[in-house]
Structure formats: structure tokens, C-alpha cells
Design goal:
Distance between the termini: 43 Å
Largest sheet: 8 strands, antiparallel, barrel
CATH class: Mainly Beta
Shape: globular
CATH topology: Lipocalin
Structural class: mainly beta
Number of domains: 1
Helix content: 10-25%
Number of strands: 8
Number of helices: 4
Strand content: over 45%
Order of helices and strands: HHEHEEEEHEEE
Amino acid sequence: MSRVEVKSANDPQYLDMEDLRKKSREELDGIYGEATAPSVGELEGKYDGTVLAGDIPLLDNPASVALANTFWLRWGGKKLDVVSDDLAEGTNWFDLGLTEFDAYPFEGKVVPATFDEGDCYVFDYDIPENTAPVRRVRDEVRKIRNGLYLGRVYIDADDLRFVTYFGLEKSIEL
């Protein structure tokens, strides 16, 4: 008689972006806490992004998360180019259907996480190319498994405040 392996819906090796979209803020907190910091070179390239649950009233339930990822509100993800062993440069990309555009550049590096133990890959928007409001944004990203990453968005409003989670997965260019 053969054995059947039961896959856990919360086992990181089996999670995908659709699973992350259905998770609550508290569930994403647990996944993020177990994830690890990727190396700088590991995130080179283009990544599709998805807005996930957060503390903003409009992102505190699955229906709102689905709305945030519609065509009309389409943050596409991030693009990263490795500059050195410990520094990357990146930008956010937006999908407008027939065209894409890049905005809000950032620097990427591995640093200690803000609110828990361990390291994270930070996307630091505090660079001269950005306007003052954008310079207050900080993303902290961890690896769930190869090709799938979970990030936290913070805003510096006297101190860093959590806004929302986002997911990144490697783009497949056709």
C-alpha cells in the first residue's frame, strides 16, 4: 500500500501568490516571521507584484485586496539591477494595459529588520530622485521560497508605521 503525502496549505514550499491574497494580516505576519532575507543578487530582474492585506481600512479584507489589484489600480511590481555584492538599484513598474511605465526608484540592500529579529532586503526610497513623500517609504522583503517573496511597506511618520503587505514573484516574459 502506498502512502499519500498531505500538503499543508501553510507550508511555504507550497504557497503561491493566490494563497497569499487570501491570507489575513495576522497570517501574513506569521509567514513573514518564518521567512528569510534573500541575498542582494537573488532579486535581480523583473518581479510581478500583488498588494496584500494591511492596516489601511481599505486593505483589511480579501475583497478590498482584490480591488487593489484590478486593472485600474495596477501597480505591476518591481525591477532590480544589482550594482555590487551588497547594493541593487530598482524601480516600481506600473501596467496600463498597452504600456508600462517605471516610477519611484529605490536602493536595495540587506539590513536588520525594523520590527523583528533577523535580516530583510530593504527597498529604500530615501534617494534624491524621489519627492519628499516618497522618500518616507521603506519596504522590507523576505523570501518565502525560490521565486516568491513577501514584503512589508512602512511609512516614516515620526516613526516607521506599517501600511500593508505585498507579494513579489519572478516575472515570466513571453
